[in-house]
């Protein structure tokens, strides 16, 4: 018996070995191999080689992406590619044709195509590629070409680092045995894996969950001190703990690790971008002066590891790298993340009640006064992301009258939902909702729809009518939640910032010898708008007096809402006269009860603690 067992075991073992060797050979043969070097980094160039093997005899279609995960406008990354050459396995040059501005077709190959090209990149942020003498921040869609039909193949990328510079590689890609070599199981993961190359400072810590260790890394490119890095890492730790407390657990990171890729330097552009197991956070502000601002981005992006990366709207699956991706759920994916990004800072104790309230007041005021809210619901605002999210166009737009960012809109919907749950349902909060959405959709990575979110709210509250009304009024509809009564629970008084003050509407003026020129868009429905005045017009006189920096405020303060002003103005070179009926200054503010001399009851104190206090202690 032992003998038989032994020979069977050997047979089994060799069979297993054969199967393993055979399949790994296939994988190796099919693996797409990239190599990137930075010999001309001072001039913002990288040299990239790609090897495609085991190709069918069709022409190989190679493309540069036009979109980048988490960024919704189209970007023609192909414009930064030049000196492209394609060769076969015998190093013979191949013919390349251009069917579109972002595609290269390579015909006549022998099953192998070796592609080389030069890439220019001088914007280090969460979308583009920035290469310079100090470091490189690489977003993969902006950096690496890929081929149609080979999206499922595994990928290996090798970073050839400049000699004597102490550069290292930080990324969510899987580290391989060969130095500076990393892999991705397929194209979607590869393109979602930004990489920082440079002499960064590393801090890392372990979190044990259910017997499993998860590593959190902070790779920090900055000019600051080691002590600043330590202090900042301790702040990031607090954010991680508080967010974990919201969901009850960290996500399963693909390779057991989550990496904050932070670059705080004068040579980056401020940004934050979420990915499955990492985030790129860039800021021109150093930790010495702006640690808390930078932490705000960290907090927002880390929350995305649950909300949008794993709690994923169906509308974004799979992400299309060649087209604009439209989602009606960004009020949730971005807006609720914005809400928690700020709330978590309060829960860490790094932001005071007063600071949190000021921020809330500014965000709520902006949302309440946005004229665009009359035109589009939060869902419809989300669908406009491809036109606004880092979208650049030269023609003027009417966005100040038609648009409200789904970040702000969704942030304030989250506030309304959190406070409504706390008001209407004993012991329920938005944390409970997020946790249930996580359990139902995020943990299993089942993409959700709007209907799923609505049903889940009904399930949580045991009241589908509440859920339906909330969704149809404030998310799909254009109604405003009762913020005044909701905020009162927390001892926060929502009131007019300048009660009884007459106003021409929110407008920025530039005063000169001629008069006051309107510098900002004139908002629809405002007194100036109704009087036919437009951005660029110059107010020559108000009730006979030339407006100046000194007298303008006084001119309005003497008046009451409803009073009429006689205005002479110049519009496109023509002098005109109009009468403007003054409106009420609509700016809103939130004042704490203690600031307003009102009583802060024990109930208010415990409400604030439950809402804004630590959950991880
Ligand atoms: Zn975001």
TrEMBL record:
Gene3D superfamilies named among the record's database cross-references: 2.30.42.10, 2.60.40.3650, Neutral Protease Domain 2 (1.10.390.10)
InterPro entries for this protein: PDZ_sf, Peptidase_M4/M1_CTD_sf, Peptidase_M61, Peptidase_M61_catalytic, Peptidase_M61_N
Boundaries of every Peptidase M61 catalytic domain copy: 295-413
Name of the protein: M61 family metallopeptidase
Peptidase M61 N-terminal domain sequence ranges: 33-199
SUPFAM superfamilies in UniProt: Metalloproteases ('zincins'), catalytic domain (SSF55486), PDZ domain-like (SSF50156)
Gene source species: Rhodocytophaga rosea
